[in-house]
Write a structure and sequence with these properties.
The chain is α/β, with parallel strands linked by helices and 363 residues long. 40% of the residues lie in helices and 15% in strands.
Length: 363
């Protein structure tokens, strides 16, 4: 005799790793307003004549053929531009992918060490890939906690140590001596150090010489910010030969498509446009900062990137006020040390005028 089984809800096991199940979906909601200051993008598009040239070259290329296996021609062009050994350049579609493979290289079953606050992608990849995440609080002035970081390097199982210079999301630039001290200590205790230089054009800082001197250290760079190519997706790493060779094993074949490759080829033949835009952004950053200096309730925090933090008495109210003025910013007020803070990108002069006027109305 058979009986029909009782209809009961059985917990379905999906076979998904608990680390992945435990991570909430990426919390970014695009908002359609005229003034977009929420993603630290370049306010200016890639120059029209270069777009036209890239498009012309695209039409001539066969689209039915696979691209270079490991983007060798593009890596050569980046190596020439950066004065680097071409075998020690690693490229992926956006530096987010680099952060993932760096976590795969040295974080999984090991440790990912960074600051708190930090760039959210580092902690996200550590969580997804189940690396042990150790975060050390920045000092109150946003400088690196050198002694505390060194202590962690000595006591934790080594892995990957990642910091951004300028720091994200504060825009703070540390003393070179502090960064070098950390690089040396990390090397001594067997850590791979990642210096994320996504915003270095805006700060005038450059750690290539430190990377050359320390084979465990690498510089992460992107075409998404100063180059104005966030939509095209390309990030790269300048490393020592051994780190680069091992990192390259983690890059999937054909990971840079011919569209990206062609646009980057044109951009690297005409890098002059970048400097002009960066100069304007630096001047505008100072102008916005000066204009908000005597604000009765809000404080613009100094930054050397293309964005800055605005500390407000009520981040939600400030965010909504700016949105009503057609300006979207990024709330950072839930982060450690950033109570009341919005992160705001420097836009075009007209966008910055609108921002200044709207912030001046805030109480
Ligand atoms: C924007 C940004 C990047 C670049 O990301 P892409 O994936 O290359 O667009 C890298 N690091 C930090 C800290 C950033 O803010």
């Amino acid at each position: 005799m058979t009986s029909t089984p009782p209809t009961q809800k059985k917990e379905v096991k999906l076979g998904i790793r608990p680390a992945v199940l435990g991570v909430p979906a990426y919390p970014f909601t695009p908002i359609d307003v005229p003034i977009k200051l929420d993603q630290n993008e370049n306010p200016y598009d890639f120059p029209a004549e270069l777009k036209a040239e890239a498009t012309r070259r695209m039409l001539e290329r066969p689209w039915n053929r696979y691209p270079d296996l490991h983007a060798d021609k593009l890596r050569d062009a980046i190596a020439r531009f950066e004065d680097w050994d071409n075998r020690s350049v690693v490229v992926t579609p956006g530096s987010n992918v680099l952060i993932k493979i760096l976590t795969e290289l040295a974080g999984i079953n090991q440790t990912l060490l960074t600051t708190d606050p930090t760039f959210s992608v580092y902690t996200l990849e550590a969580a997804l890939l189940d690396a042990k995440l150790v975060q050390v609080s920045l000092k109150d002035d946003f400088s690196l906690p050198v002694a505390e970081l060194k202590a962690v390097m000595e006591h934790e199982q080594p892995g990957v140590f990642v910091i951004a210079q300028p720091h994200a999301p504060t825009g703070y630039v540390d003393d070179r001596a502090d960064v070098e001290e950390l690089v040396k200590h990390a090397e001594r205790f067997g850590w791979v150090t990642v210096l994320d230089e996504a915003y270095h054009q805006y700060s005038g800082t450059d750690y290539r010489d430190v990377v050359k001197a320390h084979p465990n250290t690498l510089s992460l760079r992107t075409f998404s910010k100063a180059w104005g190519l966030a939509g095209v997706r390309l990030g790269y790493i300048l490393a020592g030969a051994e780190v680069a060779q091992n990192l390259q094993k983690l890059v999937s074949a054909f990971n840079v498509n011919i569209l990206t490759e062609t646009v980057l080829e044109v951009a690297l033949e005409h890098p002059q446009y970048v400097g002009r835009i960066v100069q304007e952004t630096i001047q505008e950053r100072q102008r916005v900062f000066d204009a908000l200096q005597d604000h009765p309730t809000c404080q613009a925090l100094p930054s050397r990137a293309n964005f800055f933090l605005l500390r407000t008495p009520d981040a939600q109210a400030a965010y909504e006020h700016l949105l009503r003025h057609g300006i979207v910013t990024r709330r950072q007020d839930s982060l450690h040390l950033l109570q009341g803070c919005l992160r705001i990108a420097i836009g075009t002069p007209a966008e910055n005028d609108a921002l200044i006027a709207a912030v001046k109305e805030l109480r």
